[in-house]
Amino acid sequence: MSRNCFVWCFTLPLVGLFPLFSGCSRKHYRTQADQDVAAIYAETRCEEAYTLPPLAGIDVDPRSRFFDPSPEDCPALPLPEPQLYGYQLPQLATGDPNLPRKRSDIESADGAEELPPPGAEELPLPEAEGLDLGPLAGLEAESGTRAVEGFAHTGTPRSESGRGAGDEGPNAQPGRRAASDATTGRLPPHPQPFSPAKPGEKGAITNLGDDDETGAISLASGEMKLVMPRSADAVTPQVRLAELIRENEQAEDGQAENERAENERAENERAGDAQADDGLSLEGGAGEAAENQPDWDPTADNRQDTEQLRIVPIPDEFWQQLPETCVPRMLEFESVREEFRRSYPRVTTAGMTGMLSDAPRLTLPMITELASLNNRAIQTQKERLYRAALVLSGQRYEYVLRPTRRGNGSGVTYTHVRLDSTTRDGLVVPTETSVRKTTAIAGQFLASFANSVVFTFNGPQGFAADIGSDLVFDFQQTIFQRDVVFEGLTRAERNVVYEARNLIRAQRALFVDLASDYYQLLLTYRAIEISSQDYFSNLRAFLQGRAEYLQAGRIPRVQVDQFEQNALDSRSSLVGACNTLESALDRLKLSIGLPPEMPLNLNLEELESLTASDELTVTRQLVMRTRRTLLDAAQIRLGDRDAAVNGATVLINRLRETLRVRRKIEGVTEVTDAERETETLALRLALLEARLQSDQLESIRSRELNSDLPPPALIQFARTIDLVESTLSQSERAVKLRADLGLESDVADAVTADQLSKQFYKLRRQWDSAIEDRELDQLPELVEKADALLKETDALKDRLVGDLLPEDGVDFENVIVQTVADTVALVDRVETSDIGGLDEVQVEQEQAMLLALYQRYDLMNRRGELADDRRQIKLAADDLRSILDIRATQTLSANRFEEGVFDFTADGSTSRLGLALDTPLNRRLERNTYRAALIDYQAGRRALIDLEDQIKFAVREDLRQLRLQRNQYEISVARAALAYERVVSTRLQLQLAVGNVVARDFLEAQQAFTSALNSVARDHISFIRRRIELFFDTESIRLDANGYWSGGQDDSLELPPLPDFYDANPNPWGRLPKGVRYSDEVRQNH
């Protein structure tokens, strides 16, 4: 045997074994699969004319919860022990959820009590300045009785000292005495704010309904026992709340001591002033009585300006009755924090911060980004697409010349045989390799090489070698079933497109679901705020009713029980809303893919924006309602000047609130021209109001002083001092109006006004002191001082008001008419803007339906599946035919040789040509399959029609619901405005015992107002959610890399333009793979 023979014999086995060792590289095969899939993704997008967005791979982001840090090709099993709090929120491209709250959100100005800005339905206080609401004054806070910054709710600009134009001077706090005539609308002195009595005192308040038969009630006091599950080293907000309560009680004890010392010092000073001025020895001044009032007495008839009423704090025990998880959620809102500061005034900013939830605060973009990282369903959908691409890569590999999966290798077999004292050793080295390919016409090509080497070392003939090699070429072609051969490739190609569309639609559906959950959570947060205010409001109503019943019996017990029942219902609603919030947050975590135990909160900036929008809409509704009321009153009572001015004042105040909210929404920091005009008109109306009041008081005073029987000194002083007060108010308001108009004003007049104001308060204190000490001989002298003061104030008023308001009655009437007309004109001009409210639904229904039918991915898939069903008819029909196959085989063989292993010649070749026919004598199963294929096609056709109808219905329903929600929103806004006025009206009538108004009427009004506020928020958020559904149903949502659609927070209802059908659907029935020869019937249906 030649040397070359041995070389080839031993080289070929080694070559055959080489792929075995190279195949052990796992990373090589994994990266190859990833490269093939990436190429298929890119090709698929190109074939679909880029109607598909970029397709994501299956690599898990390192920030994801299910990221596996172990080696990809040799992953390690996770720890079997379950863990809590094992995942922390990662850094997000859409923002930092761990940023602390803005300091301005939790601290009040100058560290003191600060009234929060109006919320969505925190409306301006209705004009009822002449009524003392007692404890019900707290209801004003819940109903939105917030003064616009720098101005009182009456429309009167506040002075730099912080008091209104008609407020008291800086040296006195008591209210001003009212005239006995109720028509004057003046306000009596000595406000007596209500507060619960001390434990053991009569009238003390305990739990709702815990009164004994004697009527004595004790205030339950105790520490807060609120515990919230948190980490072991963390201080819970509830524990912090209990600490703050104890600190507040200690601080109040110290403050009470300081206040008593200050009161004693002030009493001595006032007594000294009175002796110096009047030469009288008074044991106590009226100022002491005014500044150190007992708790509010519901039996008293005293009245004072509602702006100066002390809003009753919520008693400590009612805070303690709330569940441990509810208080931190309530304190998310400034209106509730303000109530808490009122109950615990010593709470610092740091203390309030410690009580708030420190959980990460997520926005909707953060939520969608976290879901794109952690949502398991989306990851599974990505893997389904990847698997479909892997199947396609395998099917495509069938159409390239490739080694066969098995039978490519070599081996060595050694034999040792001993028989009849004869020993024979042999060595067998078989080697085989083959390649194959499916051709474009469904043919199967196979080429194989087989080499066999047999060595016999010590046989009968000594060393012997038997070497044989075969080279085989085989080609097989089916004649009638070509499309059947192509079906695997066809199905794999189309499945990739189907799964790609399913993935994209699943990502968009996930955004829709997350957005729906997010806005539902915002609605729940809003319900907590509204329920909190409703609870506080009903609780104050109960406290007042209880006090009135116990101290004076002014109302029957049944009405007290009604108040109590309503307070309990409000608390139940509040607790239920808090519980609903916790459950909804846990469900959101599951949707995102986060562990339920992870602390989580929402960033409420978008809720504040929605609330501001609702606030603007409701205040605009109030403006328009007030405008209509003013115009109706002007037509019915043409000569009622007071009604016209009062109505215009209410209108301008509400317009001012509307402009403030509008500027807040637009983000404008500078005061607009409309606001300047509004302020000027407010000042003009305030001056007119003071003038009308002065005229009325002067008429009453003149009538009584000129009567046949001179009035007693008490009446003379009351009428005169009221007129002095009203005249001073005219002067103060005139100063402000002159400054606003840029008119010249003498500085000395302002100084004189301040001095006269001080004299007025001093005279009032002297009068009150004389009455209290029964120094009746001093009364005539005080009446003379009041007359002298009136002359001085009249002179000042003539100088300041003379060129602003005419004295002539006709001219004055014309000024009133013109001012009211200017107010209405300003409202008509400003309220033409479209800011606020919801966009009108102007989407064309037919265009929207066509847009959905053109763009819906699920409908594209259904069309493709119908084409698949049609193709199955062709394949089933092919199976009914005869099976005719042609096969050609060429074999080249080489046996023992000396020159070379691969010396193949024609002498050792074999050629075969075969034809195989299988006649259709038995096609019963194939017949049934064919008939089923026909049925499946018709069923698929009906399914396509059904899906088209469902899509059209969904779009029509979306538009129908959008129009309904917009209409319901307008109704809810009108209901909120009406209910707000109804609440105030019934509250005041109940307080004054006017008509037949009873507690049930007020409770029904309060319930209607709360229901309307909830409806406004619910309808607004429902409109937003339905709008997102419309864009999803028309396949108009386009997500960014973080799974977020920026158009979700846009209020526009404008859909994308309708594209050409074939631009949106380049392959309506799906495409066929390139490079293969389908039958004409198949090509015609794709």
Please describe the topology of this protein:
Blueprint: H1 3-22, H2 26-47, H3 137-142, H4 237-278, H5 286-291, H6 316-320, H7 326-330, H8 334-343, H9 349-355, E1 361-362, H10 364-374, H11 376-397, E2 402-403, E3 409-410, E4 413-419, E5 422-438, E6 444-459, E7 462-478, H12 482-551, H13 557-592, E8 601-602, H14 605-636, H15 641-666, H16 673-705, H17 713-741, H18 747-772, H19 779-801, H20 809-830, H21 845-855, H22 857-880, E9 883-894, E10 909-918, H23 924-992, H24 999-1033, H25 1061-1064, H26 1080-1084
Parallel strand pairs: 1-8
Antiparallel strand pairs: 2-5, 3-5, 4-5, 5-6, 6-7, 7-9, 9-10
Helix pairs in contact: 2-11, 4-9, 10-12, 11-12, 12-13, 12-22, 12-24, 14-15, 14-23, 15-16, 15-20, 16-17, 16-20, 17-18, 17-19, 18-19, 21-23, 22-23, 23-24
